[in-house]
Each structure stands twice: as C-alpha cells, then as structure tokens.
From TrEMBL:
Family of this protein: Belongs to the UPF0758 family.
Entry EC no(s): 2.1.1.72
GO BP terms in the entry: DNA restriction-modification system; methylation; proteolysis
SUPFAM superfamilies per record: S-adenosyl-L-methionine-dependent methyltransferases (SSF53335)
Protein name: site-specific DNA-methyltransferase (adenine-specific)
Domain of life: Bacteria
Amino acid sequence: MVKIKDKPAVERPRERLLKKGPDALSKSDLLAVLLGSGIKGKNVQQLSQHIIRKFGDNFLNITAADLQAISGIGQAKALQIVAAISLVKRFFKPCEDEIQIINSQDVLNVTSEFRNKKKEHLISLYLNARNGLIKKETISVGILDKTLLHPREIFSPAIESNAASLILVHNHPTGDYAPSERDNVIIKKLIEAGQIMGIPVIDFVIISSKGCFSFFNSSNKVKTLDYIAEGELRTLWDLLEEDKISYTKSFTVASHHHFKSEEPPDGHFSLQNRRYLGNKYRLLGFIEDIIAEKCGPVETFCDIFAGTGVVGERFNDREIAIISNDLLYSNYICLHAFLGVCSDVYIDVQNKIELLNNIEPKEENYFSENFGGTYFSNENARKIGAIREHIEVISSDSDEKNILLCSLLYAADKVANTVGHYDAFRKKLDMLKPIRLQIPHIQYWNNQNNEVYNEDANELIKKIYCDVLYLDPPYNSRQYSDAYHLLENLAEWSMPAVTGLARKMDRKHIKSDYCQKNATSAFANLIYNAKCKHILLSYNNTGETKDGRSNARIDDKDIMQILSERGSVEVFEKDYKAFTAGKSNDENNAERIFYCKIRG
C-alpha cells in the first residue's frame, strides 16, 4: 500500500485543497480530507473511494452505524462525516410548501390579485426545473410598450434566481382579454430571447376581470393543457414557432420553401432538437429563399462551420451532396450520425439504445466524479459515464458508435443543470429528471453522396469544391470550445484532468481563430482558397457592447472588401435579436447574409 505521505504533494487531497480550492478535488478526495487518515491496508484515498462506491446514491443518508460497520472506521470519524452531511442538508433542504405551476389554471391562482387592477401590469413567474415557483415579480406597471420593454428586465431576475424557465402574465384593465398587437410583438421577442438565454418562456397569459387567454393553450399543437407532458417540458418556442420569417431584402424574393423537415416519430429525436448558441434553425427559410433566388440548381452544398448541422440538413436531398464540417468532435459525431451514415442500422441501434437505457450503475466513474452534483444529478452523471464506457464495448463499427454517442450527447444535454451551455452550471441542482436515450431520426437514403469532416475550416477549404459555400463562423471572442467543453470531453472520452469551478479540460487544440485577433486574416485566407460558385456568409452585426467579448471580430468593411475581391456582393438582413452581457443596441442588431457570386 502506498502511503499518502509518500505521494507527490500534487496528488495529496489536503495539499491540493490548500493550493487549488475544493473545486479542484473529486468527491472521494473531499471525503479523504474529512477522514484525515486511512485504515490498515488502505490509505485515506483508497478508503474514501471505497465508501463512495459502497453507498453510491445513498451516501447522503448514511448513518454513523453504517460507517462504523466498515472495519477500521471508529466512532469519531463516523460522527464527523455524518455531522458534515447533516450540515449541508440543513442548508439545502428544499421547501416543502413549494407551489407547482402545472398549467394556466395554476398561473391564474397565483396572479388573481391582478385581474381587477386599474393599471396594466406585467408579471413574471420564475420556475425551477420541477416547475416549482421560485418567485413572482412585477416587471412593469403602466402601458406595456414594445419599445420600452427590454428582455434584460425579464431575464436578469431569472438568472439571479437560477430559474429554469418562466411564465409571463399581463392584465388588461379594459376587460378584453384577447391579445393585442403589442402583446403578439412582445411575446415573439421574448420567446426568441428565452431560447438564446436557455431560459424558455413556457406561457404568456392575458388576464382581465372578464376572463383570460393563454398563448400555450391556444396552440393547435397542444394535446393536453399541462405544461409538462410525458416527462417533457413544452414551451412557446416549441408550440408557436412560425415557418415563415420576415426579413428586409434588396430585391423581391419568392418564398419557395422546397425542403421540408419530417417530424420524428415518438421515441426519436431530430437533428435540430438540441440547445446550441447561434443555432440557425429559425433562419432556415431566410437562407433557403436567397439560395433559391440567387444560386439556381445546387448539386453540392458545403456547411463548413456546421455546429449542429441544421443548415446542411435543410438541403440534404438525394440530388444534393452535402459537405458538413465542424472543429468540435462532439459536433462531428452528431453530423456524421445524421448526415454521414448511409446504411440502415435501425434495428441494431434500437436494441442497443434499449440496452443502454437499462444500465443501472452502482459505482462511481470518471464522469460522475467530475460532473455529478454540479452539471448533472449524481444519478444521471453516474449513468452517463457508465453508458459512455459501454458504448466503447458494444459498438460494431464507427457508424453505429457515432449514432449511439449522438443519442447520448442529446440525452445528456436535455438533463443538464445549465442555461443551455457549459460555461457554468446552475448553483441550485434542480434538474432531476432521469436521463433516457432516444433514437436519432436519420434519413439514410439521402446520405449516399455526403461527406462529413472534423477539421479546421481553413485547411479543409483547400481540399474541396462545391456549388454553394455557406459560412457561419463564430462572431466574437467567445470560444465554442469553452461553451461545450463538457460534451467534447464526453465525446472524446480520453478522460483528461479537469480544473476550476467549471471543470474544464485543456482546449488548446479546439480554439478557433475566428474568436481571436487574427479573425480577419483567417477569413481572408478562407475566401481566397474557396473553390465554389456562390458564397453565403452569416454574420451578426453585434456592434459595440459593454462586454467586449460579445463584439464582432470582423468589421463589415473588411467583409465587403474581402468578398468583393472574389465577386459581386449583396447583403440581406433580418431582424434577429442577439443578447450579450452588455447593453444591446436594438436599432443596429440584425442577422445578415452576405451573398457573393464568384466571378468566372
């Protein structure tokens, strides 16, 4: 047995706690500090690991007698651990009188005092992941004006209170409870804001002395009036999303919308069913119309900064070859599953996903040690780690492995205790829904001629040719490798050391030049090497904000100059609110498509 004192200082729990703080220690190391010393045949680290493995999920309910049943642990050590656990439980004991908001009737019950108010009020109900009411806050009093109300007034309290979602309530003193034009404009703005912030708007309820109106209940997609159905929370983003999107343009564009996405069957998920910063799902009609008008017949379409891959998937057809690429391996896994797998492996995948769902792990693993109790519940973290290890064993080939990994990544994201990315986790762990893998809804028959890559875009561009090159690079200095480090870690599964409160691994190999000072030169190099007929560039004019990290890295003038060297350029614009840590500039904030027709 190796004694703790014989180990290097960097490996000793107490020394690491002093030097790096508690967030740098695993659960077993923290327990080792409490224990202080080992027992005969086991050093303190081995003893703490044995205790955590032995009690698993029941660790927080262990008694002094349970601990003393372990040979070598006396009364003093047992009581010390039990006292520490009891102290933590006292601080974090959940409220037994928590009000659950299950449907619009519950909303009316907690806001009834506003029905007869003589002035207009906008009230926000902030909910935890169990749809429990955290707090009720009046946002504004007086005429609700879309020009005066800013999303930060709604979402700042949500962030401060660690809300998982929210419901808005607006009273109409006139007695007319039908939504006004102002109500419709405001709720659309706030639904988009909630999706970007990762704090969805579940419902917008209009109340008056004569009745009420619920946007949620009015949707023709609602099968039950409860906000949670079959274990899934439904929001206004899911129910009220419009297919046609308005945008300003420099010429008349016909709304063709040739490509339609299929709804996945029960127990399945689609490529777009994932939270992701900068997701272009809401802009697909905008992009498609420009391509239909400007690019003519398309045989090859390249989405070289694919992210979730929704743009490439929109054009995925037997007659169109898709080239899809992303720098992050976790994205590549899912791109390959949805766009790169050609043979139908449905039956095998279905059986193996069912097998993975039935895993009941008893022991801690790399994932639960590092991410349990923070990004995920302890139970979900343990199961995620066990499933990831099992995928390595049961996968018959790379196609099947990528499909199983994709299912795990999407399922993990659904139960993550975050606001939509992994730069940080919610302080209060309230995402307790058990993880369950579903089957990716893959259109194998459309993937025969597709190519999927995991490369730096500036290197890949030298090797490929396409009719349409679609570019959606990062806009600002916020690295996607920072926001999605945890999913990247889970996909790569090299089990690296993680550090800091956010438990991040080393990410030097997946840093993008487009988030750094050399973004403009990287863009110029990419355009210079592009072999294509048409270029479409999505780039948000985020303008100047107090948070410099949110400012666009490439200036509009530079974009125009670089593209103009290859051909004629037109710019299309659509209002699309972006939110940053600083103050947004509402009058100069839009999603643009720079279109370049290549000369020659």
